[in-house]
Amino acid sequence: MPDIRQLKQFIAVAEEKHFRIAADRLNMTQPPLSHSIKKLEEELGVLLLSRTKKKVALTPVGEVFLAGAYETVGRLTQLESDTKRAAAGMMGRLKLGFVGSAIYQALPETVRKFRASYPDVELELNEISTINQIKALGENKIDAGLLRPPISAQGLLDVITIQTERLVAVIPETHPLSSNVDINLSDLSEDGFIIFSYDTSPNLHTLVMLACREAGFTPTISQTAPQIQTQISLVSAGLGVALVPECAQNITYSGVLYKNIKAPSKHIETSMAIASQRANKNTLVDAFIKICQDNDGLQT
């Protein structure tokens, strides 16, 4: 079987129609080139070129062989380029998990910048709770995840905070506090709370409960909902108030108002982090993490 060197030599002779000119183009002398083409013909058992003292011409078989040579060299060149780009983290597939609240800022910001820098990388995005992301990382079902700390299995994962934000109150626009710029959390002690489900969002559920207790009351839970947009919708329907990450203010929803909480405690702060397996890194994961860390568009 001809190798890529022979194919490139044949292409040069076919295009130049002259052995000496083709040899100059290939930075070699004519005798080795003539010998290589002759050996190629002998291996194939066909005559690819008709030779005269003045020029070289393709035989009908040679024309067929030239078309195949172009295709083969093109494919091998592309394969070499793709392999090098994949090794450098410029190609491949990245499986990314994300919590629902990441869609309001962290996910679109980082994915947009990652795709701009790595357009040939295929991104597989999966919305998964923090608890299930930890499991998926351990089972190699995802390569990295945008989640909300704290998490278990900390020793097995690298967890880097990329965004810190406060919780804000979501109240109906008909609420007595609707005209206030900021509110005290204790002002909502008589309201029913629409709160994150502990099963799907234990960290945010716990934050809300601790913040309310620090403000001097135990919230009356009127509804639980796993998704921020569901909570906001229920607030709009007049079923209570909610505390959500401030990135949720990017959601335009009729009938609700977002209010900052005065003198917030540590329980009013939450963070978004990028997590990956400590023992199973690759160049694509490292590249995505770097973009997360360098992303000035995230609120901090």
Radius of gyration: 32 Å
Q: Judging from the principal axes of the Cα atoms, what is the shape?
A: rod-shaped
According to DSSP, the number of beta strands is 12
What CATH calls the topology of the largest domain is D-Maltodextrin-Binding Protein, domain 2
Query: What class do helices, strands and sheet pairing give?
Result: alpha/beta
Mean pLDDT: 89
Percentage of residues in DSSP E strands: 15-25%
Structural notes for this entry:
The protein is an alpha/beta fold and 300 residues long. The protein folds into three domains: 4-87, Winged helix-like DNA-binding domain superfamily/Winged helix DNA-binding domain (Arc Repressor Mutant, subunit A, Orthogonal Bundle); 92-157 and 275-294, Periplasmic binding protein-like II (D-Maltodextrin-Binding Protein, domain 2); 163-270, Periplasmic binding protein-like II (D-Maltodextrin-Binding Protein, domain 2). Helices cover 39% and strands 24% of the residues. It has helices spanning 4-16, 19-25, 30-44, 60-87, 106-117, 130-138, 202-214, 228-236, 283-294, and strands at residues 49-51, 56-58, 92-98, 121-127, 144-147, 157-172, 182-183, 192-196, 220-225, 242-245, 256-261, 269-277. The strands form three sheets. Strands 3, 4, 5, 6, 7, 10, 11 and 12 form an eight-stranded mixed β-sheet that branches. Strands 1-2 form a two-stranded antiparallel ribbon. Strand 8, helix 7 (202-214) and strand 9 form a beta-alpha-beta unit. Helix 1 crosses helix 2, helix 1 packs across helix 4 and helix 5 (106-117) packs across helix 9. The two termini are 61 Å apart. The mean pLDDT is 89.
